[in-house]
Amino acid sequence: MNPLPEHPDFLWRNPEPKRSYDVVIVGAGGHGLATAHYLAKNHGITNVAVLEKGWLAGGNMARNTTIIRSNYLWDESAGIYEHALKLWEGLEDDLGYPILFSQRGVLNLAHSLQDVRDSVRRVEANVLNGVDAEWLTPDEVKKVCPIVNTSQEIRYPVLGATYQPRAGIAKHDYVAWGFARRADEAGIDLIQDCEVTGFTTDGDRVTGVRTTRGDIAAGKVALCAAGHTSVLTDMLGLRVPIQSHPLQALVSELLEPVHPTVVMSNAVHVYVSQAHKGELVMGAGIDSYNGYGQRGAFHIIERQMAAAVELFPVFARAHLLRTWGGIVDVTPDASPIVGHTPYENVYLNCGWGTGGFKATPGVGWCMAHTIAHDEPHPFNAPFTLERFVTGALVDEHGAAAVAH
Amino acid sequence: MQLIECPWCGPREEVEFHYGGQAHVAYPADPQALSDEEWAHYVFFRDNPKGLFTERWSHSVGCRRWFNAVRDTATYRFQASS
Ligand SMILES: Cc1cc2nc3c(=O)[nH]c(=O)nc-3n(C[C@H](O)[C@H](O)[C@H](O)COP(=O)(O)OP(=O)(O)OC[C@H]3O[C@@H](n4cnc5c(N)ncnc54)[C@H](O)[C@@H]3O)c2cc1C
Ligand SMILES: [Zn+2]
Predict the structure, then answer these.
(1) What confidence score (pLDDT) does residue A11 get?
(2) Could you say which of A58, A133, A166, A209 would form a disulfide bridge with A123 (CB–CB 3.0 to 4.6 Å)?
(3) Cβ pair B71:A289 closer than 8 A
(4) What distance in Å separates the CA atoms of residue B47 and residue A84, rounded to the nearest whole number?
(5) For residue B10, how far is its CA from the centre of ligand 2 (angstroms)?
């Protein structure tokens, strides 16, 4: 049994905002909190505030399906996600807090000849990058996850899968609370109920943020607002190539352990794992339209359930308990934007779309480095805002084993 | 399920429609004259407001015609379509 963590109220102070900080981080999701932790731990920078308009880690951090993997095709992506995965492997010790990181592996299913070719190519690329990856036949898939329907008679038969044994899931709330506790211990102020509503600027520099709790001066500002980044950058007159979309997930009632790994499928578009407590946790694709409402359309859930039941016939008897939505920020190349902006002391972290939870420690590490040295870390250097102008697209659509 | 007003067919269920993103993104009048940055903005950058948004929809399983709509991206409510 894992020890239960303390009640979150006692994990950090709830300070009044000071009038000035060396670094202001906007957004107390996983990314903002991890950035704060590594600013203190790796760089000794602690005169920092993390401002959150709602409650700590109540955005996408609380809403995601917690899949962690690093089996991306391109070198740039393998670099940053594998850096994150290595940090996940030591995170419980670093934070001194349980995060229920479970390396139960991930299967990415292939359903067509082209899927198979793309998957095998990705496995080879992963291996060249030192990322653990294997190609499994349908029979081998069945051994890893006996409840997958490997019948060749269904509409999208399973023709095989890539397998990353080191991939897995973690308990998202505990991850956030663990980072928050460490940042708080280092003296960093975590300030909830504090929405950034504007900026004060002086030429190419930002001098501070306007908030619902008063103006706060800032030496440097890091935007870690996930789906709401455009709302902030619009206030700065800065255009970013992201579109915000609802993304939904759902859980079943508690079941006996039936599902030992993580299964993802692009073609029929469902991904599923079984939470530690026993719920089946499932996600689907994004809703097509732009939205900020933190809910989505019902037909997306219907389609996702149809796909899930075809792939996992045993799910047909499970009851759906609840559904919810988050708002994800999608870029044209399905890769993040991390680094400098035209404002010399404003740093951007956005565009992680449907897959940024897995990056949490890695991106926090790289953001902290970028802020501390005013220079990107080698792992985030490729993910600039300029790449859309220079044509140097990172381009993980399809290649990343995500379809959106 | 959300009803969307097709200007030609009337209110129909959301599943009959296909989303086309921001409306009124005009092809550059003088493409030769554009800088790389201007091209990037034409190809990759779109508005992403929280609030009213003018966007394109196609009634893809109905009359198959494209139309413009104004929708609130915070409430998802359609204000107008034409
Ligand atoms: C349904 C769903 C499933 C997902 N599944 C996975 C998955 O399996 N694996 C994976 O890797 N990723 C997944 N993701 C994506 C992942 O959740 C995000 O990429 C990641 O959480 C984004 O970073 P974050 O944690 O900092 O964002 P968030 O937790 O959204 O943090 C941003 C914070 O900024 C705050 N904020 C916004 N505007 C302001 C403002 N003006 N002032 C102050 N605060 C502000 C928000 O309230 C929010 O708390 C999923 C997302 C969703 C919605
Ligand atoms: Zn019509």
Answers:
(1) 85
(2) A133
(3) yes
(4) 31
(5) 7
CA distance B38 to chain A (A): 8
Strand, helix or coil for residue A61: helix
Q: Which ligand is nearest to the CA of B9?
A: 2
**A129-182 pLDDT, tens digit each:** 999 999 999 999 999 999 999 999 998 999 999 999 999 999 999 999 999 999
Helix H segments across A236-332?
Answer: 298-311
The residue written with tokens 């299967």 in the block is: A107
The answer to whether the CB of A78 falls within 8 A of the CB of A164 is no
Three-state SS at B43: helix
The amino acid at residue A8 is P
Give the C-alpha separation, A304 to B65, whole Å. Answer: 28
Q: Which of A242, A390, A391 sits opposite B48 (nearest CB)?
A: A242
Q: Is the dihedral of CA A84, A96, A170, A231 positive or negative?
A: negative
Measured between alpha carbons, how far is B10 from B12 in angstroms, rounded to an integer? 6
Handedness of CA A382, A383, A386, A391 (dihedral sign): positive
Ligand 1: residues with CB < 6 A are: A 26-32, 51-54, 57-61, 63-67, 195-196, 224-226, 228, 232, 247-249, 283, 326, 328, 352, 354-358
Residues of B in contact with A243 (CB under 8 A): 21, 46, 48
Long-range contacts for A309-312 (Cβ within 8 Å, ≥24 apart)? A310/A149, A310/A154, A310/A155, A310/A156, A310/A268, A311/A109, A311/A148, A311/A149, A311/A158, A311/A263, A311/A265, A311/A268, A311/A270, A312/A147, A312/A148, A312/A149, A312/A259, A312/A263, A312/A272
Q: How far apart are CA A171 and CA A24, in angstroms?
A: 27
Question: What pLDDT digit, counting tens, does each position of A302-319 carry?
Answer: 999 999 999 999 999 999
Handedness of CA B58, B63, B65, B70 (dihedral sign): negative
pLDDT at A168: 98
Q: Distance (Å, rounded) from C-alpha B15 to C-alpha B4?
A: 9
* Residue A111 burial by Cβ neighbours in a 10 Å radius (0-12, 13-18, 19+): buried
* Best residue of A389, A394, A395, A397 to probe chain B, by most B CBs closer than 10 Å: A389
Q: Which residue has the tokens 């019948």?
A: A151
pLDDT tens digit sequence for A76-87: 999 999 999 999
Q: Tell me which residue in B21, B40, B73 faces A388 most closely, judged by beta carbons.
A: B40
Q: Tell me which chain A residue has its CA closest to the CA of residue B15.
A: A299
Q: Cβ(A223)–Cβ(A53) under 8 Å?
A: no
- Where is pLDDT greater, at B24 or A269? B24
